[in-house]
Amino acid sequence: MADPRVAVYLDFDNIVMSWYDRVHGRNSYSRDRAKIADDPTDAEIVERLQLATIDVGAIIDYAASFGTLVLTRAYADWSSPVNADYRQQLVARAVDLVQLFPAAAYAKNGADIRLAVDAVEDMFRLPDLTHVVIVGGDSDYVPLAQRVRRLGRHVVGVGVAGSTAKSLAAACDEFDAYDTLPGVTVPEKPVRKRPAAKSEEVKPDAAVEETKPKRRRRKLPEEPEPDPIESATKLLQRALELGGRDNNDDAEWLHASAVKQHMRRMDPSFSEKGLGFRSFNAFLRARDDIAELSELGHERLVRLKE
User: Fold this and answer.
1) Phi and psi of 250, rounded to 5°?
2) CA-CA 20 to 30 A from 99: which of 52, 193, 227, 277?
3) What is the pLDDT tens value at each position of the chain, 306 positions in all?
4) What Å distances lie between residue 251 and 97, 165, 281, 291, 301, CA to CA?
5) 3-state class of 229 per DSSP?
């Protein structure tokens, strides 16, 4: 059987706004939109945006669990400071960034229409596509999902819980909430401090200027170079979680070769020999804190340790 071939389409504005609302409360993005547009470097806005950061890798790895990714596109206005911080992550995962220039105030339906047109065109341009992953919870994608299914493709939907139309989930062959993807956690909301009471004393303009807090530029913290063994361990854990997501029995075993193939789909640079192991089985044995290995005859089975 030929390896499944997967196309991924991300309505990036939709997923960013929906996750912001999921983290900070319903309609939070609408309330903060003006502040974000006026000054994205404001200290409070920086903190709220960082708390609601999307894990791009979790989405791409989830899509890769269905087969080989042959194209991945993300649609957004990449000149927006909110989206610009993700460009490096997306490019590093070989995601094509489709620029949408807003013709109106909020570019209503801009991504929806462009994404749908591209997806249908790709169905005819790439007849070997087997799976289509639509990342976005807008009900406007229901006709697209229905059309893609009629064209014989398996449609997978991904959206944020609480912000996804039920009609879209029903139109897909399967649907998963972004919140439930391996590696994704909903951060705790910070306790907002009450503003201090204003002093009755009127300060001179110079004094006010000196005591005015400086605004911080929004800058993502520099990440240290990841430990390759730790990264490979997390990759294995995610592969085992995703590989067993459709099993009725959580204890069901997976073939070690299939797990390795899944890990290579998520991260083509993975190599157990590059990590100092003679074989993939040796790598699994060394990860006995998260993986349980069964070696019966020529069969090698592995499952996630509870």
Assistant:
1) -65, -20
2) 52
3) 678 999 999 999 999 999 999 999 999 999 998 888 888 888 999 999 999 999 999 999 999 999 999 999 999 999 888 898 899 999 999 999 999 887 554 545 678 899 999 999 999 999 999 999 999 988 999 999 999 999 999 999 999 988 889 899 999 999 999 998 988 988 876 655 555 555 555 455 545 445 555 555 555 555 567 789 999 999 999 999 998 775 555 558 999 999 999 998 888 888 899 899 999 999 999 999 999 999 887 889 999 987
4) 40, 33, 19, 12, 12
5) helix
Alpha carbon distance 210, 234 (integer Å): 48
Distances (CA, A) of 50 to 149, 168, 173, 183: 37, 28, 33, 17
Structure pTM?
0.77
Asked whether the beta carbons of 262 and 243 are under 8 A apart, the reply is: yes
Q: Token digits for 30?
A: 């609408």
Strand 154-159 and strand 131-135: pairing? parallel
Instruction: With CA atoms as reference, report the closest residue to 164 among 176, 146, 150, 180.
Output: 176
Query: Two tokens at 274?
Result: 């590059």
Q: Are strands 254-255 and 299-304 parallel, antiparallel or unpaired?
A: antiparallel
> Nearest Cα to 8, choosing from 61, 67, 72?
72
Cα-Cα end-to-end distance for the chain: 32
The SS3 assignment for 9 reads strand
Structure tokens at 267: 């991260």
Cα–Cα–Cα angle for 269, 275, 281, nearest 5°?
A: 95
Closest CA to 10 of 167, 101, 115, 93: 115
